[in-house]
């Protein structure tokens, strides 16, 4: 009985931690009002690093080249592709004067390293302001560049955007991918508003060339497989130099994985970088995940043994209602409201998948990109 009382009090503490995170951390983004910032119209270099992406470039590059923006170039980086990626790039270069190609050959030192290819592309970029996306992404609107670059000011040299995934009907995997992407965005937008920016996504990210070279680019984590986006942001971002952009016209949309195996393989690479984050970020993110896991584990134990069950149910309902309130408001910002009906199920499923990936990464290292 004493042991069950200990579990009950631990459950109360975990619920308290969760409520604090939802109300005082994630609430900062959820209740944030959208603001249309004045346009900068600064010359921009859009940078796309592609490895074996011939088909995606054919499909999605026109939506970038047709952006409504006065002055921009598109830097296409061919990262040692084995398909017709380079030929597709050259075809676009012939038709568009603002397309520049950087052809990267494999080297023994930097084999399979996207950061090396990106560094060469950044060096080749003509403009100071850089906007990054992937070959399988398309802007949500023709005003994507306008909205993302509007975040730049004299002090704001790094802009975090949202890279969503397209919907696939009647697909549980698709809902999981989109829910994971949604919660990650809520986390990094909320932390940025609190003055603790810790990551961004390369599908939709902007920063200045000066910021990149002033911080020695990817030098400090060049040998780490992933992290050209989140590790770089974790390294250089602070409360003074970082802006967020979450207007729907600033979104990009990507092609989601269609098999659990390929998605988990992708997530293994992404999650493997978290251990290189700054200590304060690792503590906070670890506390978020651990409290989520313990919330469900302790609730199930207490309810299955009917220990203090009226209070357990009350706390369970309280936390879920607060979660629905905060995530519901945030999902409205990011055009993902349809996911909310599946919220508890998706949360539990995602917690288990992340636990599986964490254990898997301890046993073996994830593969190189592509």
Name the beta content range.
5-15%
Tally of individual helices: 12
- Tell me the structural class: alpha/beta
Look at the structure and give the mean pLDDT: 93
| Low-pLDDT stretches | none
Distance between the termini: 53 Å
Order of helices and strands: HEHEHEHEEHEEHEHHEEHHHH
| Strand order in space, largest sheet | 3-2-1-4-8-6-9
The largest β sheet comes out as: 7 strands, mixed
Number of E-state strands:
10
Q: Portion of residues in helices?
A: 40-55%
Shape: elongated
Report the radius of gyration as a whole number of Å: 21 Å
Describe the structure.
By secondary structure, this protein is α/β, with parallel strands linked by helices. The chain is 51% helix and 12% strand. The chain has helices spanning 2-30, 54-65, 85-95, 114-124, 144-149, 172-193, 209-214, 230-236, 260-271, 279-304, 309-333, 343-363, and strands at residues 44-50, 72-79, 99-104, 129-134, 137-139, 158-160, 163-165, 205-208, 242-244, 252-254. Strands 3-2-1-4-8-6-9 form a 7-stranded mixed sheet, sandwiched between helices. Strands 5-10-7 form a 3-stranded mixed sheet. Helix 1 (2-30) packs across helix 6, helix 1 (2-30) packs parallel to helix 11 and helix 2 (54-65) runs parallel beside helix 3. The protein is elongated.
Question: Secondary structure elements and their pairing?
Answer:
Elements: H1 2-30, E1 44-50, H2 54-65, E2 72-79, H3 85-95, E3 99-104, H4 114-124, E4 129-134, E5 137-139, H5 144-149, E6 158-160, E7 163-165, H6 172-193, E8 205-208, H7 209-214, H8 230-236, E9 242-244, E10 252-254, H9 260-271, H10 279-304, H11 309-333, H12 343-363
């Amino acid at each position: 009985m004493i042991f069950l009382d200990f579990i009950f009090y631990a459950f109360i503490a975990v619920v308290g931690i969760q409520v604090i995170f939802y109300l005082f951390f994630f609430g900062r983004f959820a209740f944030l009002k959208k603001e249309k910032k004045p346009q900068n119209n600064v010359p921009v270099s859009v940078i796309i690093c592609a490895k074996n992406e011939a088909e995606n470039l054919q499909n999605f590059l026109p939506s970038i080249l047709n952006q409504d923006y006065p002055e921009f170039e598109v830097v296409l980086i061919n990262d040692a592709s084995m398909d017709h990626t380079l030929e597709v790039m050259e075809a676009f270069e012939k038709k568009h004067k603002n397309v520049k190609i950087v052809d990267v050959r494999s080297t023994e030192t930097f084999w399979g390293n996207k950061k090396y290819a990106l560094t060469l592309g950044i060096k080749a970029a003509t403009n100071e302001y850089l906007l990054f996306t992937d070959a399988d992404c398309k802007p949500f609107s023709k005003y994507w560049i306008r909205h993302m670059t509007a975040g730049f000011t004299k002090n704001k040299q790094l802009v975090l955007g949202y890279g969503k995934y397209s919907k696939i009907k009647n697909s549980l995997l698709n809902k999981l991918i989109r829910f994971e992407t949604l919660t990650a965005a809520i986390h990094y937008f909320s932390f940025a508003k609190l003055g603790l920016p810790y990551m961004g996504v390369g599908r939709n990210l902007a920063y200045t060339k000066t910021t990149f070279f002033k911080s020695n680019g990817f030098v400090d984590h060049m040998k780490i497989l992933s992290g050209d986006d989140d590790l770089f942001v974790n390294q250089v971002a602070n409360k003074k130099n970082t802006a967020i952009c979450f207007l729907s016209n600033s979104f990009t949309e990507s092609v989601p994985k269609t098999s659990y195996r390929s998605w988990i393989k992708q997530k293994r690479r992404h999650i493997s970088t978290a251990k290189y984050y700054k200590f304060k970020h690792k503590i906070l993110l670890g506390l978020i995940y651990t409290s989520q896991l313990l919330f469900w584990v302790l609730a199930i134990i207490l309810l299955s043994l009917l220990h203090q069950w009226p209070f357990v149910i009350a706390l369970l309902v309280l936390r879920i209602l607060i979660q629905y309130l905060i995530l519901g408001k945030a999902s409205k910002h990011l055009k993902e409201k349809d996911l909310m009906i599946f919220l508890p199920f998706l949360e539990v499923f995602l917690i288990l998948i992340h636990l599986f990936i964490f254990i898997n990464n301890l046993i073996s290292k994830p593969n190189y990109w592509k």
